Amino acid sequence: MDRFDNFIDGRFVPPVGGAYLETENPFTGKAWALIPRSSAADVDEAVAAAARAFRSPAWAGISATDRARHLRRLGEAVADHAAELAEAEVRDNGKTYKEMLKQLQNTAEWYHFFGGLADKITGEVLPVDAKDHLTYTRAEPLGVIGMITPWNSPLRLLAWKLAPALAAGNTAVIKPSEFTSTATLRFAAIAHEAGIPAGVINVVCGLGQEVGQPLADHRDVAKIAFTGGVGSGTAVYVSAARRLAPVTLELGGKSPNIVFADANLDSAATGVAAGIFASGGQSCVAGSRLLVQREVHDAMVERVVAIARGLRMGDPMHPDTHVGPVATRPQYERILACIAMALDEGAHLAHGGKPLDAAGPGLFIEPTVFTNVSNGMRIAQEEVFGPVLCVIPFSDEEDALRLANDSAFGLGAGVWTGNIGRAHRMAAGLQAGSVWVNTYRMTSQIVPFGGYKASGIGREGGADMIKAYLQTKSVWVNLNDHFASPFGPVQAAGVQAAGRAQ
Ligand code: NAD
C-alpha cells in the first residue's frame, strides 16, 4: 500500500506518533493508501514552521510584486498538474474525472485572480480633524491561518481560502479531510516545487478531533477558515471563540430549486436533476428541495425522474460515467438511513432509493426522488449530502418564498421562471447567499460565495474577500516637535524644564 506523510516546512515528515490511517478508494471499496494519523504534536510543529515562515525574509521580506509572481506561478503549476491532481481526487472521493478535471482547471484561476490582487493591497491617508497629524492605515496580514477542508472538493475549497490568504501575505497549516488527504499532500509538494518558500504551506493529516481541534485551539493560529458540516463547524467556532480568533465558516445547505409554471420545464428539469444528482448530491449547494408550482408538479416529476433513470453510474474515471460512487462509507450509510427515514415519515418513493451494486464494487446509491413531502418533514429540513431529491408543491410566489425560507440553512437557491419581474422579486426575498435564475450551481473566483443563517459565516471569492485575511492598523504621527499637553501648563514637580535630549 502507498504511504503518505505530512508536509511541514518544505518536506514530507512522518507523524510524531508514528500512526497511520487507511484511506479507501470508494469505487473499488478497497483501502489503497496509508495517511498519517497525526496529533497535537504534529500540529505544533506545523504551526511553528508556518509562524517562522510568516516572519521570514523569504516570505515577509519580499515585495508585493514578488508575492503576486509566486501566486501566478502556483496557478500555472496547478493548471500544469490538473490531470494528475484530478486523478488523485477521484481516487480519494469517487467523483467523476471529467468533473474534477474541470474543477482543477478552475482552481488554477483562483491563484491567478488573487495573485492579481497581491500588489493592490493599500492603506489610506485619512483626513482627520487634527491637522498637525499625519494619519494613515496599513493593511497587514493576520499570521498563520488554519484551514480545515472537507472531502467533496478538497483542492478547490482549499484554493478558496489559500489563494486570498497567501496573496495577503499569510502562511497556512492545512488539515484536509481524513477521507481525501492525498491530493492535498501532492498539491503542497507541487507548490513547493513551484517556488513557494518552505513553511508557507504545511499539511497535517488525521482525524477532526485529533488534528482539526488542536489546530482550531492553537494560540498561534490567527484565524480558522473551515468548510464542512454544521456540527464540526460549530465545534471549530467554539474553539476559536474561546481565544477570540476570527473564523470563516462554509457549512451545509438544504437549497431549494423553485420551479414556476411559467418556466421552460425541460430546461428547469435539466437544472434540477443536475443540481441534485451531479457529484451524487455531495455538493454543499445540492438543490435537494424541488419546490414546484402545483399545476406543473406532475410534469416536472415526470421529467426529473426520466433524467434520473438515464444517468449512467459507474467507474468515475470512465468518460461516459455521469455519476460516481458515494465518497465515504459513513456517508453511504447515512444516505441510506435518510432514505429509510423519509419512507417512515410517509414520503412517496417516485424513483430510486436503493444501493446500486451493478454500477461497480464500491459505494453506489440510485438517484432518488421523493414526492408527497411536506417542508416540515426531517427529509426536507436535514442535509442528506447525497442523491436524494424531495418534491414539495407550492401555490404562488408568496407560498414559494415562505417554503424556501423555512429552513435553518441559506446557502443557495434556484429560481426557474419566464417572468423577469418575478425572478428579481424572488432573488430579493430569498434568504440565501447565492441565487441562480434559470441556472444553477454557478461559482467563480470573481463572485462572493457563502451562507445565510446556519450555512456559514463570511464569504469566499470576490476581490473584497482578500480583506478577510488582512487586519487594519491605524498610525497617527504628530508632525509637531512637541506633544501638546491636554492639561495646559503643568510644572512637573522636581523635574527641571529641559529641551530635547541631544
Ligand atoms: P465534516 O464537517 O465532517 O468535516 C470537514 C472537516 O472538518 C474535515 O477535515 C474533518 O476532519 C474536520 N473536523 C471534523 N470534526 C472536527 C472538529 N471537531 N474540529 C476541527 N475539525 C473537525 O464535513 P465533511 O463530511 O467532510 O463534508 C461535508 C459537509 O461539508 C457538508 O455538510 C457540506 O454541506 C459541507 N460543505 C460546505 C461547503 C460550502 O462551501 N458551504 C462546501 C463543501 C462542503
TrEMBL record:
Entry-linked SUPFAM superfamilies:
ALDH-like
Descriptive protein name: Aldehyde dehydrogenase
InterPro entries per record? Ald_DH/histidinol_DH, Ald_DH_C, Ald_DH_CS_CYS, Ald_DH_CS_GLU, Ald_DH_N, Aldehyde_DH_dom
**What Pfam families has UniProt attached to this entry?**
Aldedh (PF00171)
Alphabetical list of PROSITE patterns matching this protein: ALDEHYDE_DEHYDR_CYS, ALDEHYDE_DEHYDR_GLU
Query: Sorted alphabetically, which PANTHER family does this protein's record hold?
Result: ALDEHYDE DEHYDROGENASE-RELATED (PTHR11699)
Which keywords fit this entry according to its UniProt record?
Answer: Oxidoreductase
